[in-house]
C-alpha cells in the first residue's frame, strides 16, 4: 500500500450478545429510560425531557461516580418496523462536563431475531474528553474500559431478560460472594460475518453493505442521520462557547 494511503483506524466500539428472550422483552428493557438506567452501568439516571415531532426522545443523563456526578444530554430514536423483524435505535449524546472522559458521541442498537431469542448489538463512537491528555489515553485506556463496561452491562441485561435476575443483584462485588455474576466475556467485540445483504427495510444501504464491514459505524441505521448532530441538543450559544473552551 502506498505511503499515506493507509485506511484511517476504526475507533468505533462494537458489543454483541445473544439474549434468549422475546424481542418485546428486550425492547422494553432497553427503550424504557428508567429500566435502561438500571442495567446499564454507564448511567446512574436517565430523565426524558422532550419529544420531537419525529418521535425522537430528548433526555438528560447522569453518571454518579461518588465524588462527582457527570451530567449530559442526548436524544434517541427507535424504529420498530422492518421487513425481517429487526428493530433499530439510534442515539446522540454530549456533555459540557470537563471531567467526563467522553465528549460528543453517537451510536446505534440493533435487535435481530435469532432462533427463540435476539442478537442485540451496538456500535458507537465518541470524541475523547480531557483535551490532549484524553486523546492520548483514549486508545490505550479509555476505550478499553468503555468497551468492558458496555459488555458487562449487556450481560447484566441478558440475566434480567432471560432469568429475571434484577440488575441490582448483579453488582461489582456480589458475584465474588457467590451471587449472580455478569461477564463481559459473553459478548463479541467485532461484527459477525453476514451471509446475505440486508433487506431494504432494515435501515442499511446495500451500496454500503459488506459481508465483513470495514468500519463499525458503516452499519449504523438510517435513523441516525435523522437525529442530526449534537448541535441540535445544545442551544447554539452554548455550543459555540464550548467549542471555544476546547480549542
UniProtKB/TrEMBL annotation:
Residues 185-209 are annotated as: Disordered. It comes from the Bacteria. InterPro entries: Polyketide_cyclase/dehydratase, START-like_dom_sf. This is Polyketide cyclase/dehydrase/lipid transport protein.
Amino acid at each position: 500500500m502506498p505511503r499515506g494511503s493507509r485506511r484511517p483506524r476504526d475507533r468505533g466500539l462494537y458489543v454483541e450478545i445473544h439474549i434468549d428472550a422475546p424481542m418485546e422483552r428486550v425492547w422494553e428493557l432497553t427503550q424504557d429510560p428508567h429500566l435502561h438506567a438500571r442495567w446499564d452501568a454507564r448511567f446512574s439516571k436517565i430523565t426524558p425531557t422532550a419529544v420531537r415531532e419525529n418521535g425522537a426522545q430528548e433526555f438528560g443523563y447522569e453518571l454518579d461516580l461518588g465524588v462527582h456526578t457527570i451530567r449530559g444530554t442526548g436524544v434517541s430514536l427507535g424504529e420498530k418496523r422492518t421487513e425481517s423483524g429487526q428493530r433499530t435505535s439510534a442515539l446522540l449524546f454530549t456533555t459540557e462536563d470537563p471531567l467526563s472522559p467522553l465528549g460528543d458521541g453517537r451510536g446505534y442498537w440493533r435487535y435481530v431475531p435469532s432462533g427463540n431469542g435476539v442478537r442485540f448489538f451496538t456500535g458507537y463512537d465518541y470524541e475523547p474528553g480531557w483535551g490532549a491528555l484524553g486523546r492520548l489515553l483514549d486508545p490505550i485506556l479509555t476505550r478499553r474500559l468503555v468497551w468492558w463496561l458496555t459488555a458487562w452491562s449487556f450481560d447484566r441485561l441478558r440475566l434480567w431478560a432471560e432469568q429475571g435476575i434484577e440488575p441490582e443483584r448483579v453488582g461489582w462485588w456480589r458475584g465474588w460472594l457467590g451471587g449472580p455474576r455478569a461477564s463481559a466475556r459473553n459478548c463479541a467485540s467485532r461484527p459477525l460475518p453476514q451471509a446475505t445483504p440486508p433487506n431494504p427495510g432494515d435501515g442499511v444501504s446495500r451500496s454500503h453493505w459488506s459481508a465483513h464491514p470495514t468500519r463499525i459505524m458503516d452499519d449504523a441505521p438510517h435513523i441516525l442521520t435523522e437525529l442530526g448532530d449534537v448541535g441540535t441538543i445544545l442551544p447554539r450559544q452554548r455550543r459555540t462557547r464550548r467549542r471555544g473552551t476546547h480549542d
